[in-house]
Write a structure and sequence with these properties.
The protein is α+β, with helices and mostly antiparallel strands and about 450 residues long. It folds into 3 domains: about 160 residues, Four Helix Bundle (Hemerythrin (Met), subunit A) (Up-down Bundle); about 190 residues, paralog of FGE (formylglycine-generating enzyme) (Alpha-Beta Complex); about 60 residues, no CATH class. About 30% of the residues lie in helices and about 10% in strands. Strands 11-10-9-12 form a 4-stranded mixed β-sheet. A 3-stranded antiparallel β-sheet has the order 5-6-7, with no helix packed on it. Strands 1-4 form a two-stranded antiparallel sheet. Helix 1 runs parallel beside helix 5 and helix 2 packs parallel to helix 4. The relative contact order is 0.14.
Length: about 450
């Protein structure tokens, strides 16, 4: 891929400082006794994520990029790579608890690596044109976006910590809203959809975003709003979790093994439904988008006689226009503020669907960016001509296994810097912890 020839080091240096401040801010949300907790068995304990960003930064830019000495070889190895185990082997491959260092050691390590990385960002050698690792600031952009992706990881892990282990931010107040609209759909005419990005079109992109391609998309009819908690409750009350005909064999085996009867974000108590929020429970908000795994979303769509959209259909619905050109965002070509969508941690939770009418697409479709990542039916894989990223070759390729599915859009806590049409998120089909919702396409 090609990146801009001139790298604004001042901007990158401030971006790095902002990333590190936000990482610290997120760790300040949890109490000291939570530091070694593992709220999701498919992930490492929280201590890993404080050390991981620091280790990745110094390993990528300082050691591999500039061939300089790091801070602590053993910690740079320990914190180098996370885990993504299959749901049937939760906890397998996780580092034993006794091997994690105490927090003072991790903090000292982070401070030392931060100093090395700051010096590297401002180094004349950090953008050397004769080094493909450093050319046009590739290693710098890699560490900056990598840390941003883990900000969201931390928050969806915090969702599952006991409430007494977290500090509720001042002024936190969910917005439950009223009843959502029902049954609205939009016709999207046949047309072209651009997937991925053209080299040089973005300051940085991950390898799975390149090279961009154009797809021909037949006409389709799609939900105007994401499936809400009220919509999904009908599926639950209709016995959807007891009827294998709506599930693939693998998904049904998972549902039975886990004993799932409803989305894990829901809590049933004394005959009433509640939503398991980040900082406390609230009565189940009917107008919020439902958060579920790909397996659950697919089962609901089958029950409705519908299906999940493809990645190309999502792009057509989000960025296409009647006149044939494509927008950068659903609402237009300028970045969105608070009136366009629920992302960038402006709020901690979802809001009622349709709360941002200024963010609708050209076809009148709501919430295509923000309020929850959206599952597609597209299996995560490289675009034709895919080449692994020099600075992080395993970033995407390790997940081209047929078990991960593309998600598009953004969640309430997705950093604004990741809101671009080419960005592709992904998770396993039976991973229920991410802030992911869906909408359906009529068959």
């Amino acid at each position: 891929m090609t990146l801009p020839q001139r790298v604004d080091r001042e901007r990158c240096g401030e971006w790095f400082r902002r990333n590190r401040r936000r990482t610290q801010q997120w760790f300040d949300l949890v109490k000291p006794e939570a530091y070694y907790e593992q709220p999701i068995s498919l992930r490492n304990p929280l201590v890993f994520y404080e050390g991981h960003a620091a280790a990745f930064n110094v390993n990528t830019l300082v050691k591999r990029g500039l061939a300089r000495t790091g801070a602590d070889e053993s910690l740079e190895t320990l914190f180098e790579r996370g885990i993504d185990p299959h749901e049937s082997t939760a906890g397998a491959g996780a580092t034993p608890a006794e091997r994690w260092p105490d927090r003072s050691t991790v903090r000292a390590f982070a401070e030392e690596t931060d100093a090395l990385v700051r010096d590297a960002i401002y180094s004349d050698e950090a953008t050397r044109p004769d080094n493909e690792f450093l050319r046009d600031g590739l290693a710098i952009y890699t560490i900056l976006e990598h840390e941003m992706t883990h900000h969201e990881t931390l928050l969806y892990m915090y969702q599952w910590l006991p409430y007494d282990m977290k500090r509720c931010p001042e002024g936190y107040e969910p917005i439950p809203g009223g009843l959502p609209p029902r049954g609205a759909t939009a016709m999207v005419p046949a047309g072209r959809a651009s997937i991925g990005a053209t080299p040089g079109a973005e300051p940085f992109g991950w390898d799975n975003e390149f090279p961009g391609r154009t797809a021909s998309v037949p006409a389709f009819e799609i939900d105007v709003y994401d499936v809400t908690n009220r919509d999904y409750l009908e599926f639950v009350e209709a016995g959807g979790y007891e009827r294998p005909e709506f599930w693939t064999p693998e998904n049904w085996q998972w549902r039975e093994r886990e004993g799932l009867q409803h989305p894990i974000f829901w809590v049933r108590r004394d005959g009433d439904w509640y939503w398991h929020g980040l900082f406390h429970e609230v009565p189940l908000p009917p107008a919020w988008p439902v958060y579920v795994s790909h397996a659950e979303a697919s089962a609901y769509a089958c029950w409705k006689g519908r299906r999940l959209p493809t990645e190309a259909e999502f792009h057509r619905a989000a960025f296409g226009t009647p006149e044939g050109r494509e927008r950068r965002y659903p609402w237009g070509d300028e970045p969105g503020g608070v009136q366009r969508g629920n992302f960038d941690v402006r709020l901690w939770d979802p809001v009622p669907v349709g709360s941002h009418p200024d963010g609708v697409s050209a076809w009148g479709i709501h919430d295509l960016v923000g309020n929850g990542w959206e599952w597609t039916s597209t299996v995560f894989a490289g675009l034709p001509g895919f080449k692994p990223l020099t600075t992080y070759p395993q970033y995407s390729a390790d997940f081209f296994d047929g078990e991960h599915f593309v998600m598009k859009g953004a969640s309430p806590v997705t950093p604004a810097g990741l809101v671009r049409p080419s960005f592709r998120n992904w998770f396993r089909a039976r991973y229920p912890y991410s802030f992911a919702t869906f909408r359906c396409v009529l068959r």
